[in-house]
Amino acid sequence: MIEIIQIGDPRLRQVCETIPKHTITEQETKEDIEKLNEALASQSDGVAISAPQIGIMKSIFVVGGMVFDKEFQEGTKKLSDVSIQNKVYINPVITKYSKDTESMEEGCLSIRGVYGNVVRPKKIVIEYYNEQGEKNTDRVGGFLSRVIQHEFDHLHGILFIDKATDTWQNDEYKEKI
To answer: Out of 3, 127, 151, 172, which one is annotated catalytic?
Structure first.
């Protein structure tokens, strides 16, 4: 099982390196994507994961297929029934943020048991490369926008607790933090 780094590890505060475009389709990047997918699959409560969370200091993150499944988001489908594949974002750049914001509860696989309300723009425009080395531009809103912004922050050494207006702990994890 791939270890997910926890708060206190200095790698979570580092800025990740851009992956050279000509290496995006090479074996090393494919292996990094496999590790990200494996780490995310090992967590029943995770919706996305960034490379620094597993000790890979490269600009890449993966968003779980369940985030793209409307029925799952509405609560009418079980996770085991989601067939949408995870989506890979390599060298992402958020080029636009909406002026409209909203506060929502967030947590993190690298800060287990801690939650907080974070204000984020409702919509963004993101440019990135997929695993085939193709450049993409997406306009996203809602929960996906929040997830992308959270993972994008990880690539720049920023944790959700840096932006949270308040935080609280789940009693189950108090001894671990």
So the answer is: 151
